[in-house]
Amino acid sequence: MNNSSRGFCSAVLCLFVASTITQRSYADDKDIVSESSSTVKDKSLARNSSSVRKSKRVEEIPAVEVEMFAALDSGDLQIDYLPQDATKAVLIFRNATNKPMKIKLAETFGAMPVLAQDAASTSESNDALIPHYLLGLVHAPEVHVELELTQDQVNSLESLFYKIDAKWFPARILPADKQLTVIQKLEQDVIDWFKANTSRSQQERLQQLEYYAQGSRSLLREDVGKRIGLHPTQQSKLAVFAKATDDAQQKLSRSQFGDTEIKTLQSTLAESAREERAAVSKIIRPEQRQKLTALLGPTFDPSKLKRIYAMAPEFVKVKTWINSNPLTASDLRGKVVLVHFYAFQCHNCHANFAIYQRWHKELTDKGVVVIGIQTPETSAERNPEAIKVAAIERKLDFPIVVDLESENWKAWGNTLWPTVYVVDKNGYIRHWWQGEMNWKGATADKTIEAVVDDLLAERSKNEIVTSKP
């Protein structure tokens, strides 16, 4: 209710958060076998401290000279470099028994045990810079079409959404470490579903779509780095520019509508993004670009995806509804729903009341339902009778949930009074706004009305096309 509650947060910025978890590949990890018949999994020695206790970091790999020393559980390991052409170079590993083991540098560079520690360190430090778009991708009907999912597969996937979305959406407000723990578990649930219910080609294509969604940030992934031959030093250089962009984005996201420094922050962000793109062009070599193109597969534009958010939470049961019998999410299927959180003594909320009244009056006959959720902050706002009186005085004639225990507030992961959510005819969140809709010249009400018009024109669930034309 204070000035801080007037701020707003872009839906895209709020929902898609960078994670510190390790990226996964849907395809099975391939074994890399040296001439000594030693087998190294992509993830093995890099993450097992008992297998790799320490290593000397290698910042560059010159074509004529490399010196590295490591200690493995099996004994001291000396690595000698043969000064040959880099593409034909061979590393000779000499273990404690002085038995030589040869590994071709060009073929196994990213997976050699002595380098795995360095590669892992780079990957782990970059994880926070890699956006996690998997959950959003699998919610998009356009992705279902691209993957050629059958209607049965789509129905089964939606059953999974009922289980995971109640955790996904409110997780956006958790502290970073806890948030990422939730995202990690939910992404694994999605990966497990795809492994169990789709073909290998569908899984591989989904992996490609995730790369497309992550854009140049996919180059920071450990799996992508290995597959196109990126050295950790290259990824470290890319990460510097990526972090500068993220820092600029965070500063902009913390601003409030109407702040005088917004234009400067936007300019800084744009410049950081340009520098990041330029860095990619300079750091990635032509042969690596060719491998990346092959890795990505057919072109796909994630920016055209329309439904990338979770299913709206089910209304938590409460003792009192005003102006309506209790409603459920299933009751509202086929309707566009405008859910707004408010408190009747909140002055910022009062500024939106006339808009809610207009929506209820003008949009109901078009198939729109306005629902208020009154979650208290003050003691007076915890009195159901006072809430009813205030609703009458303010002419709030739409259904109102009396959320005395703040359970609905928690289910939605809400943080501010007022906040408005737009839910489509199939029950998915499509847009939201925090704060006064006309604060300092903002026109959030018009933006929401445009979204509503688009959603009213969309097909209902039983008309969704799930195969390519």
Q: Going across the major beta sheet, what is the strand order?
A: 8-11-10-9-12-13
Question: Strand share of the residues?
Answer: 5-15%
Radius of gyration from the alpha-carbon trace, in angstroms:
27 Å
Helical residue percent band: 40-55%
Give me the secondary-structure category: alpha+beta
Q: How many helices does DSSP assign?
A: 17
- How is the biggest beta sheet arranged? 6 strands, mixed
Can you write the helix and strand succession as a string?
A: HEEHEEEEEHHHHHHHHHHHEEHEHEHEEH
Envelope shape: globular
Ends: how far apart? 51 Å
| Total beta strand runs | 13
Let me know the average pLDDT. 78
Low-confidence runs of at least 5 consecutive residues: 1-122
Can you describe this structure?
With 469 residues, the protein is an alpha+beta fold. The chain is 43% helix and 13% strand. The chain is built from 17 helices and 13 strands. The chain has helices spanning 11-15, 44-47, 105-108, 113-126, 134-139, 141-146, 151-168, 176-197, 200-214, 222-228, 232-253, 262-283, 286-296, 347-363, 384-393, 407-412, 444-457, and strands at residues 32-33, 39-40, 52-55, 68-72, 75-81, 90-94, 100-104, 321-322, 336-342, 368-374, 400-402, 419-423, 429-434. Strand 1 and strand 2 form a beta hairpin. Helix 7 packs antiparallel against helix 8 (176-197) and helix 11 (232-253) runs antiparallel to helix 12 (262-283). Mean pLDDT is 78; it is low at 1-122.
